[in-house]
Design a protein that fits this description.
It is a single chain. 65% of the residues lie in helices and 0% in strands. The protein has 244 residues and is mainly α. The chain is globular, with a radius of gyration of 19 Å. The relative contact order is 0.07.
């Protein structure tokens, strides 16, 4: 019996396909010529709501796959060792989650919200199998970040403190920017839940960000601190956008 699974070209790279999906999403959103026609391969297109998942579906179809998940699995099957496979899936799940956060809000369809959250949990599991304490801590951050983005701060409140706990348990495995980010996610979670120490935590995160030795990392953390939403104690955002 022969397999009906499409064969990816030997030179194919999942990162390149993911970039193609990002480019297609932006092209459709911006009304570039031919983009909507290309996207229509997967069904009717609403440019204003064309998401990264929609774009990934188009890319999958263009390579002979029914779903983007099948593309990811096809690349994963190339990994020969179990530990390598765990690491590979952890990285890919993290990358895909970063893509999803472009569109993720509390108003996103419930299925999209759940999928993103489960993806964050899955990445954490794979890091536990093949990563370091630092990988684990950053995965806890991603879970909390995703939970806040979809309006579920009670989930974030469970995971955000774990990042700081792991830093305290394994200080040699983490960087100064980990310390700043762990405080940022604690502050953001505190703000989302109306905790009284939210402002103090946010100010501490800014001080820690200012002390980061690497200038690029310092700017990344500062930029994250400047992104919304930051919440009032009543649970209302004082800035727009996903908790990223």
């Amino acid at each position: 019996m022969t397999s009906t699974t499409p064969d990816l070209p030997a030179q194919a790279d999942l990162g390149q396909l993911r970039t193609q999906a990002k480019d297609l999403r932006l092209a459709v959103r911006h009304g570039k010529p031919g983009a909507a026609e290309r996207a229509a391969r997967s069904g009717p297109v609403d440019p204003g709501r064309f998401s990264i998942r929609d774009a990934q579906h188009v890319i999958a179809l263009e390579h002979g796959f029914a779903r983007w998940q099948d593309v990811v699995s096809a690349f994963g099957n190339r990994q020969p060792r179990e530990r390598d496979l765990h690491r590979w899936f952890a990285v890919e799940l993290n990358n895909a989650l970063g893509d999803l956060l472009f569109d993720l809000t509390p108003n996103a369809p419930r299925a999209e919200q759940d999928r993103a959250l489960y993806q964050a949990y899955a990445a954490c599991y794979h890091w536990l199998e093949a990563g370091t304490p630092a990988n684990h801590g950053r995965a806890e951050y991603a879970i909390a970040q995703t939970a806040l983005a979809i309006g579920r701060p009670w989930i974030a409140a469970h995971h955000a403190p774990r990042y700081a706990e792991l830093i305290a348990e394994h200080p040699g495995d983490f960087t100064d920017w980990d310390v700043a980010l762990s405080t940022e996610i604690l502050a953001r979670t505190a703000a989302a839940t109306g905790a009284p120490d939210a402002g103090e935590l946010k100010a501490r995160a800014r001080r820690l960000a200012d002390r980061i030795a690497d200038s690029d990392a310092r700017e990344v953390v500062r930029e994250r601190l400047d992104r919304g939403p930051w919440f009032t104690p009543e649970g209302e955002s004082d800035a727009a956008g996903p908790a990223d």
